[in-house]
């Protein structure tokens, strides 16, 4: 339930707001719904990652040009050990790390702050 | 403690958002860039991006129709000129705003603001050239020019109208990566863009290098090895064309060079780039199948993505023109209309000279001129780094121009006072309005209109080629050309002598020109404008004659030409230089018994002299001739000592006719005197060894010319994944198809003039969109590499129907 709420409300907010809007959304929803900091972290990280990777997959699938490959090359320069990672894996990997951290800590802090004030 | 326990995750979250929102060092703003909702994935495009659209914009007076064809070329139909240039600015910004702004940051020496400290030296150099200050002065002057100011204002409003409505999601991805956003466009920025072209085409000089040769070997050697006209040449104005004017007198002083220097002048002014150049030609009706002229042009520039050119059609009741425009500049630079076609190549005359300056003290408040201490002007330049840090530099101006180089050590002028070198450069001329030549050419109907348009142009001097449907063809090396005594500016000049100042300008009507020559065609390939019979001195060195020789041979032989015959010249890979020198070099190779070079030698003997993509002979020749030239000259004229090698023409002449010249000896080998045979064989073996080292044993797959040359089109901001590499094509330096590793034909155009309606063909190595996420970012590259041309859609009016027209953007005045 919490997962779906973050996914849907966070998705709508992200569509219109700045990229970090998912953080306050996860924070508030976890304050309201999550039981433990761990649950807050895991569920909101999972929801944020699903949202980012899901939307990214959709945009990439409907695009004329594979921009993900080009951005990956920007980081690897086409050489070195990083270039051995599949390009989409590298880009989705970076996205997952960012989404996990932002979403996860936002959800976790929602629960922790609720406990502080209550 | 309790606070920390409950707040740490919150602080981590806020901290992360803060860190990932802005660039860190060379890292882009990762959070913002990778968010699919705001970041780079928002720059992807698909079918829905390209559909009909209606916009309500403040600033247009009446409705404007922008009809896009299937190559995403906009055809703009407006009811008045203000709306036309407004719409041009708007659609260009829509496709190319990042590129437009980037060029202005380069010319203004402000790249540090967007890429940080690594651009500081480059910025410092560009600031010292003084381009921004000159551009500001030109922009100020143009305010009083009614036509220029009107166009610039309309264009600027159009660009700003686009900038005002762009949100972060839709910013070009380069802005997202570097973490900044576009700022207001101004007419000054348009002039900065033109400054960039002046610098690219005229911003090189060998004055210091030739002076170093004089200081080392004396004037006699320079006269012998660096002559003022090549042995082989096919000048732009055909030999024998009469000069119908009385030239102005020019007096040569007895002293022609600044005093000798104690040490070599180590000044990092780039040599004129040999690959920056171009071809253009026009055949008259007598040589064409239709009986009317055909014109062709391919400007050679550094190959970049986004492309330096942008195709468009501009139409309103006073003009209807098609061609390519420069991002950031109103009007069409190379193109055609119903009656005429025109194009440009670089003249490459010597328009950048250096003057040795004697200052009175360390503060450099005065310099010696005409036996008087004359005050200098000082400016403080501020460089803003991305980090916010500010670095300052002082720029000193003399009446010649900016001091671009200060000797760090004592000079031989005065033991206590420093010397410096001031630059006189045509690019800093602030008179005239270069935009006006294009304004008038866009509207020209005949030869007289062309001649009138030429008078408005300052720099960089170009060979303006022309053809009309009244069966006239013409070419004019045109622009402000300094009036100089013979060899003035071949060496460093003396900044204290008034006789060393530029003597004025060659009167515009006395610039070389030719109309309808008896040979039936006109052409240029950056070679000498004229033979030595022209009464003025333009420079001692121009591009090697190879392309010009080949073009003129082919055009002379041509009959019943059509667009396709001219296209075949654009793609001509014949190596004229190899034809000239191999008959002398190959017999020397035959004298060797070394088995390790025999396979390569056999390939050279069988090579058909074509620099085709699969030609191994071309690979060996191109690498060998470079090696050979180094083997001959590098010992006496080391490049890292800021010396200059003689030209290819002079080198070949020496190989053919002076086989015992002392220069063949490698003076670094003390106990041996090398002969021409030692040098030719040694350099050949070294070439083969080096090629083998990099490419393995000789096979057509690994040694093919296209493979080894590896033509690349680099992204303007050098972002690796945004570039194209490994393009398969032939050509090379000095080949008519002038595609080298990094430079090449940046636009190819062939126009068949017609009484009814002209037929245009063309393309460039890129795409209309500056967005790397669009398939129109580089869609023309493969076709370009294959030597094909697109049929251009030049519409008669906005109601014309064509299956190639795909969508319409309607711009309406906002109430």
Task: Set down the secondary structure blueprint.
The complex is a heterodimer of chains A (118) and B (815).
Chain A: H1 2-16, H2 22-33, H3 37-62, H4 67-76, H5 87-117
Chain B: H1 2-21, H2 30-34, E1 53-57, E2 64-69, E3 74-77, H3 81-107, H4 112-115, H5 120-129, H6 131-142, H7 146-165, H8 173-178, H9 187-202, H10 207-217, H11 219-225, E4 277-283, E5 294-302, E6 304-305, E7 310-316, E8 319-325, E9 334-337, E10 340-346, E11 352-358, E12 366-369, E13 372-375, E14 377-384, E15 390-397, E16 403-406, E17 419-425, H12 434-443, H13 447-454, E18 462-468, E19 473-478, E20 493-494, E21 514-515, E22 521-524, H14 546-557, H15 563-570, H16 576-590, H17 598-606, H18 616-633, H19 648-657, H20 676-695, H21 700-703, H22 705-709, E23 711-715, E24 724-727, E25 743-745, E26 748-752, E27 759-763, H23 781-785, E28 790-791, E29 805-813
Parallel strand pairs in B: 1-29, 3-7, 6-23, 11-20
Antiparallel strand pairs in B: 2-3, 2-29, 4-5, 4-22, 5-25, 5-26, 7-8, 8-9, 9-10, 10-18, 11-17, 12-13, 14-15, 16-17, 18-19, 19-21, 23-24, 26-27, 27-28
Account of the protein in words:
The complex is a heterodimer of chains A (118) and B (815). Chain A is mostly helical and 118 residues long. Chain A has one domain. Chain A has helices spanning 2-16, 22-33, 37-62, 67-76, 87-117. The two termini of chain A are 23 Å apart. The N and C termini of chain B lie far apart (62 Å). The radius of gyration of chain B is 28 Å and the shape is globular. Chain B has 23 helices and 29 strands. In chain B, 32% of the residues lie in helices and 19% in strands. Among the domains of chain B are: 2-112 and 142-200, Orthogonal Bundle (Penicillin Amidohydrolase, domain 1), CATH 1.10.439; 576-609 and 616-703, no CATH class. Chain B has 815 residues and is α+β, with helices and mostly antiparallel strands.
């Amino acid at each position: 339930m919490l997962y779906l709420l973050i996914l849907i409300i966070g998705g709508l907010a992200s569509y219109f707001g700045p990229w970090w809007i998912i953080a306050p959304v996860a924070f508030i929803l976890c304050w309201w719904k999550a039981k433990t900091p761990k649950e807050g972290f895991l569920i909101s990280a999972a929801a944020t990652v699903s949202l980012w990777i899901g939307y990214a997959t959709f945009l990439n699938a409907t695009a004329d040009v594979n921009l993900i490959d080009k951005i990956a090359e920007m980081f690897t320069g086409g050489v070195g050990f990083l270039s051995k990672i599949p390009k989409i894996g590298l880009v989705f990997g970076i996205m997952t790390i960012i989404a996990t951290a932002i979403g996860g800590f936002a959800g976790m802090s929602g629960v922790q702050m609720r406990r502080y004030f209550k | 403690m309790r606070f920390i326990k409950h707040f740490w995750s919150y602080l981590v979250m806020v901290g992360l958002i803060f860190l990932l929102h802005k660039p860190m060092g060379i890292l882009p703003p990762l959070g913002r860039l990778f968010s699919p909702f705001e970041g780079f994935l928002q720059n992807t495009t698909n079918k829905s991006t390209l559909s009909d659209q209606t916009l309500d914009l403040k600033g247009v007076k009446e409705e404007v129709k922008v009809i896009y064809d299937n190559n995403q070329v906009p055809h703009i139909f407006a009811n008045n000129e203000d709306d036309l240039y407004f719409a041009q600015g708007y659609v260009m910004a829509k496709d190319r705003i990042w590129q437009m702004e980037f060029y202005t940051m380069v010319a203004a020496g402000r790249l540090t603001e967007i890429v940080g400290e690594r651009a500081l030296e480059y910025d410092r150099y560009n600031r010292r050239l003084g381009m921004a200050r000159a551009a500001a002065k030109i922009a100020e002057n143009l305010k009083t020019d009614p036509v220029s100011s009107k166009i610039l204002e309309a264009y600027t409003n159009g660009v700003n109208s686009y900038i005002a409505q762009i949100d972060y999601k839709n910013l070009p991805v380069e802005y997202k990566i570097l973490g900044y956003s576009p700022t207001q466009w101004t007419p000054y920025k348009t002039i900065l863009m033109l400054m960039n072209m002046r610098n690219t085409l005229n911003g090189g000089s060998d004055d210091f290098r030739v002076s170093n040769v004089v200081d080392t070997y004396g004037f006699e050697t320079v006269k012998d090895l660096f002559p003022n006209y090549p042995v082989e040449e096919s000048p732009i104005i055909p030999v024998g064309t009469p000069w119908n004017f009385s030239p102005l007198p020019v007096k040569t002083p007895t002293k022609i060079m600044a005093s000798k220097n104690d040490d070599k002048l180590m000044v990092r002014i780039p040599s004129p780039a040999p690959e920056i150049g171009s071809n253009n030609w026009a055949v008259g009706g007598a040589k064409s199948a239709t009986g009317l002229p055909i014109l062709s042009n391919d400007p050679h520039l550094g190959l970049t993505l986004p492309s330096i050119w942008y195709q468009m059609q501009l139409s309103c009741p006073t003009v209807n023109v098609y061609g390519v425009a420069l991002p950031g500049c109103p009007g069409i630079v190379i193109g055609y209309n119903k009656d005429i076609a025109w194009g440009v190549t670089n003249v490459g005359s010597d328009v950048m000279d250096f003057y040795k300056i004697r200052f009175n003290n360390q503060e450099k408040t005065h310099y010696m001129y005409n036996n008087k201490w004359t005050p200098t002007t000082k400016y403080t330049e501020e460089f803003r780094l991305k980090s916010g840090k500010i670095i300052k530099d002082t720029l000193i101006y003399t009446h010649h121009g900016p001091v671009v180089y200060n000797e760090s050590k004592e000079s031989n002028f005065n033991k206590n006072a420093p010397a410096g070198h001031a630059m006189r450069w045509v690019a800093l001329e602030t008179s005239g309005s270069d935009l006006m030549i294009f304004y008038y050419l866009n509207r020209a109907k005949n030869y007289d209109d062309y001649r009138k348009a030429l008078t408005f142009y300052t720099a960089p001097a170009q060979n303006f080629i022309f053809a009309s449907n009244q069966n006239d063809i013409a070419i004019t090396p045109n622009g402000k050309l300094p009036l100089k005594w013979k060899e003035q500016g071949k060496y460093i000049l003396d900044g204290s002598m008034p006789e060393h100042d530029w003597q004025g300008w060659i009167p515009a009507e006395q610039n070389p020109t030719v109309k309808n020559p008896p040979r039936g065609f006109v052409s240029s390939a950056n070679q000498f404008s004229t033979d030595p019979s022209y009464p003025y001195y333009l420079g001692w060195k121009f591009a090697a004659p190879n392309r010009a020789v080949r073009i003129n041979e082919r055009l002379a032989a041509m009959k019943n030409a059509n667009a396709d015959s001219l296209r075949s010249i654009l793609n001509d890979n014949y190596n004229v230089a190899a034809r000239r020198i191999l008959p002398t070099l190959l017999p020397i190779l035959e004298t060797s018994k070394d088995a390790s070079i025999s396979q390569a030698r056999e390939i050279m003997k069988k090579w058909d002299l074509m620099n085709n993509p699969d030609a191994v002979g071309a690979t060996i020749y191109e690498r060998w001739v470079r090696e050979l030239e180094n083997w001959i000259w590098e010992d006496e004229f080391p490049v890292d000592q800021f010396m200059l090698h003689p030209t290819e023409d002079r080198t070949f002449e020496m190989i053919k006719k002076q086989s015992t010249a002392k220069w063949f000896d490698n003076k670094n080998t003390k106990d041996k005197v090398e002969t021409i045979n030692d040098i030719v064989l040694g350099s050949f073996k070294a070439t083969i060894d080096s090629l083998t080292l990099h490419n393995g044993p000789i096979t057509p797959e690994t040694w093919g010319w296209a493979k080894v040359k590896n033509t690349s089109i680099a992204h303007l901001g050098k972002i690796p994944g945004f570039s194209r590499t490994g393009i398969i094509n032939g050509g090379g330096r000095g080949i008519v198809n002038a595609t080298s590793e990094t430079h090449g034909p940046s636009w190819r155009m062939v126009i068949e003039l017609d009484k009814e309606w002209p037929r245009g063909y063309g393309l460039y190595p890129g795409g209309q969109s500056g967005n790397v996420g669009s398939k129109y970012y580089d869609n023309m590259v493969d076709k370009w590499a294959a030597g094909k041309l697109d049929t251009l859609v030049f519409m008669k009016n906005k109601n014309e129907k064509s299956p190639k027209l795909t969508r319409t953007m309607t711009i309406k005045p906002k109430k």
